[in-house]
């Protein structure tokens, strides 16, 4: 695959070869907001700033997470990536299923030349946090405005009380379908918990005939416009905006054998 431009991802020539499965390098892409000494990662009970330890020799592990924190290891600005690492395989993704807190992108490189990046676009990292939140509010309809909590985080509608029974927007999907409540649709729960295709179609507001046509997604309300925003601001348009966003390969899931390194860009 074609190599990604070096300007955002930096020089990869000095990344040490893994003794375990792959080397993870954490990149400070906070646009000057935080020094390396204030950008932290946590994995397997260990927390380090990237000034102390920019690399992690990742062992095989099942259903793991690596967390990233700005300011301090217990500060309010924290986010994560998810992965399962086999003896010779990496499977993982960035996610917006729960919320957005930090700008995250990752790039997997394998020994056979495979090279793929997922997550937020580099352009998103270069704009201010205030600008990102302002663009979110401008891009979504009124029902989704409140998901932006100041400039601290943007909640997913799937876990938001306002879309649950008794909430202000509990009837957001009323009249569009009787298959489930708004909360069940946005969270892919209840009767949709075992029906990925149906839940994805409802979030994207598409018919069965449009299910494999990304250009038709999110064209009309009601739809999950929170998810749409992250797709619009993602590398190759791929994002995990709701639990079954992997339907039709729209999520940030990336998988390959014989991985060499994983770069994780952490932004503000």
UniProtKB/TrEMBL annotation:
Q: Which domain of life is it from?
A: Bacteria
The GH64 domain extends over 1-268
* PROSITE patterns linked: GH64
Which InterPro entries does the annotation name?
Answer: Glyco_hydro_64, Glyco_hydro_64_fam, Osmotin/thaumatin-like_sf
Pfam families (alphabetical): Glyco_hydro_64
Name the PANTHER family for this protein: GLUCANASE B (PTHR38165:SF1), PTHR38165
According to UniProt, the name of this protein is GH64 domain-containing protein
């Amino acid at each position: 695959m074609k190599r990604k431009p070096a300007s955002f991802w930096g020089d990869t020539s000095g990344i040490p070869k893994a003794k375990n499965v792959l080397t993870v390098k954490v990149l400070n892409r906070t646009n000057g907001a935080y020094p390396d000494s204030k950008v932290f990662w946590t994995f397997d009970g260990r927390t380090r700033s990237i000034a102390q330890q920019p690399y992690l020799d990742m062992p095989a592990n099942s259903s793991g997470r690596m967390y990233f924190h700005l300011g301090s290891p217990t500060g309010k600005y924290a986010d994560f990536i998810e992965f399962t690492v086999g003896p010779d395989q990496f499977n993982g993704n960035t996610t917006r299923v729960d919320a957005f807190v930090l700008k995250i992108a990752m790039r997997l490189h394998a020994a056979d030349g495979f090279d793929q990046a997922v997550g937020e676009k580099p352009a998103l990292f270069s704009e201010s946090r205030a600008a990102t939140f302002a663009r979110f509010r401008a891009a979504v309809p009124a029902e989704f405005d409140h998901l932006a909590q100041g400039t601290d985080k943007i909640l997913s509608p799937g876990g938001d009380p306002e879309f649950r029974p008794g909430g202000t927007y509990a009837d957001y999907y009323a009249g569009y379908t009787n298959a489930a409540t708004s909360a069940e649709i946005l969270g892919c729960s209840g009767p949709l918990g075992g029906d990925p295709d149906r839940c994805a179609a409802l979030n994207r507001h598409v018919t069965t005939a449009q299910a494999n046509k990304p250009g038709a997604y999110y064209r009309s309300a009601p739809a999950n416009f929170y998810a749409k925003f992250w797709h619009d601001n993602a590398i190759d348009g791929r994002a995990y905006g709701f639990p079954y966003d992997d339907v039709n390969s729209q999520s940030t899931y990336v998988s390959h054998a014989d991985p060499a390194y994983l770069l994780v860009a952490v932004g503000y």
